[in-house]
User: Fold this.
Amino acid sequence: MTRTSGYRQIACRTCLTRYKVLNYISINLTATERWSDGRRVGSLFDNGYGIRACNCKKYYRLSEAIDMGLLTAPEIQEIEADEQGSEVYNIPAFLLRQADHSILDSIKSDSKSFFNKIKSFIFTKNKEVKRTKKVIVQKPLGDEIIEKIPDAIVVRDSEMYEIIRNKEEYSVALVLAARERYRMHQNDKYREPFRNFCNDRSLPIPEYEISMEHHENTQAILDAYLESEKKDWRDIGDLYRELGEFEKALESLNLVIESHDNQSGLERTIRACEMRISNPLLI
Ligand SMILES: [Zn+2]
Assistant:
């Protein structure tokens, strides 16, 4: 299940404008449709490869922004403290609290602090103790404060070409993520015809023609994957297939170590190579 808890605050490294983003505590990657080029349709989590735009006209990745932490405020409680500022422990109160569960379990699970607390109690007994403040818990900020902080600006796939065109201005990781999204965007027009073909095999296999720009972009992704230390042969094979290099695609796909993870998707991709189909596939 995709679950969130409050918001984090981030800032653009170029102009320091602050934005808020949901704080994800668990992510569900299931989708109603999974495509060979990475497109997920009906996904419960679509983070747009973490790419966001800033008002300063620059793009950034969420992981590259300045992380200013959770949008929370501390709840502070006054406590009695010893000379070192540590909380003075109230042993009689502690013993009373143990009435409903084993005192030994508490000591075992927290032995160090328990004995420190005993020591603190003995040494500060009958002494005057000062009062100090301690953070009890971080609580989410109120809605009225959170609403004043703008959401990080989500960008459309079609804007990815701006990043690719100005790649010198951005990190290698951001340009690669933009190229991956641009690849899916360019492939989008083949999805409906391919869905129709899957539903009615009497239809012709949709014709897949890629422009020079599309070819260059796909080749650049493939080059980056081939240079990567940890090669994903399934993705490499699919990129070769998309470029119409079916022999290299099959060689790469044969290097995929068998796994139970979407084995049928791998078999479908191999079959498409044998049939010399290069358009995106439903896997
Ligand atoms: Zn900015």
